[in-house]
């Protein structure tokens, strides 16, 4: 039996959105689900959903009422579904790439500084994040939390208050990019194990005070993630 080609991620999102509008029988004036519900339904970030909704409002497809939610203005559910899926995908990809550029600039330096400044307490927090990452295995949310805590712990260990404030301000965006990259790697058990090993190596270098090694490992980690995402997008075309 000839195997059917696997559907691309973007096509799956399009299909889910179209099915949603068909089964829900939405009409003009109806309220859309919340950002959180849409993000959960289509497995994308809330930031991407928020940007998509703003673009749909600019096109006159929906109306966003402050404090009340988003409401449908068009009777063409297919148009709404296609517009929503397209804007979510574009917003998601743009967010991921921009955040990875920022993370590479910021976290590489933080790994370097953490190697020189980390206290025993800082190192324990990083180690605990790795242990939780290992224990989470295929639990998406626990793995996401552990991954995020690992990177935040390194920023804290840099003992640079400006870096920490910046990361805390952008924590939601940072979580979105980690979610997207982990979603990509979860599809391949070998890459998921590789992710754990990459984090472990970074911790070892920081704990050993190997500043240049920690810096190189962090840069390699984020650069590799960006490369994998780029390849994934090319495969979807």
Description:
By secondary structure, this protein is mainly α. It has two domains: 9-90, Arc Repressor Mutant, subunit A, CATH 1.10.10; 96-236, GntR ligand-binding domain-like (Four Helix Bundle (Hemerythrin (Met), subunit A), Up-down Bundle), CATH 1.20.120. The chain is 77% helix and 3% strand. It has helices at 9-24, 35-42, 46-58, 77-117, 120-136, 140-157, 161-169, 171-186, 189-207, 211-236; strands at 62-65, 69-72. A two-stranded antiparallel sheet has the order 1-2. A hairpin with a 3-residue loop joins β1 and β2. The longest helix has 41 residues, at 77-117. The relative contact order is 0.12. Residues 1-7 have low confidence and may be disordered. It holds the Pfam family FCD. Residues 7-75 form the HTH gntR-type domain. This is FadR/GntR family transcriptional regulator.
Contiguous low-pLDDT stretches (5 residues minimum) are 1-7
Query: What global shape is seen?
Result: elongated
Q: Bin the helical content.
A: over 70%
Structural class given helices, strands, pairing? mainly alpha
Number of strands: 2
**CATH homologous superfamily identity of the largest domain:** GntR ligand-binding domain-like
CATH overall fold name of the largest domain:
Four Helix Bundle (Hemerythrin (Met), subunit A)
Terminus-to-terminus distance: 26 Å
Protein name: FadR/GntR family transcriptional regulator
Pfam family, one: FCD
Domain HTH gntR-type: 7-75
InterPro entries: GntR_C, TF_FadR/GntR_C, Tscrpt_reg_HTH_GntR, WH-like_DNA-bd_sf, WH_DNA-bd_sf
């Amino acid at each position: 039996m000839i195997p059917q080609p696997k559907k691309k991620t973007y096509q799956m999102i399009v299909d889910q959105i179209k099915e949603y509008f068909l089964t829900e029988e939405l009409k003009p004036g109806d309220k859309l689900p919340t950002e959180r519900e849409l993000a959960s339904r289509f497995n994308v970030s809330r930031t991407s959903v928020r940007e998509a909704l703003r673009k749909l409002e600019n096109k006159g497809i929906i109306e966003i009422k402050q404090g009340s939610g988003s409401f449908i203005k068009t009777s063409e559910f297919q148009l709404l579904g296609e517009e929503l899926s397209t804007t979510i995908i574009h917003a998601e990809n743009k967010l991921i790439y921009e955040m990875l550029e920022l993370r590479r600039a910021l976290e590489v330096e933080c790994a370097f500084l953490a190697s020189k400044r980390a206290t025993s307490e800082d190192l324990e927090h990083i180690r605990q994040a790795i242990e939780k990452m290992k224990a989470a295995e295929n639990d998406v949310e626990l793995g996401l939390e552990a991954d995020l805590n690992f990177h935040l712990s390194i920023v804290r260990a840099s003992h640079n208050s400006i870096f920490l404030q910046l990361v805390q301000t952008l924590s939601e965006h940072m979580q979105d990019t980690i979610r997207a990259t982990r979603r990509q790697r979860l599809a391949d058990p070998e890459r998921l194990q590789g992710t754990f090993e990459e984090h472990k190596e970074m911790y070892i270098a920081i704990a050993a005070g190997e500043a240049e090694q920690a810096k190189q490992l962090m840069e390699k980690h984020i650069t590799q993630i960006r490369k994998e995402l780029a390849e994934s997008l090319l495969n979807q075309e």
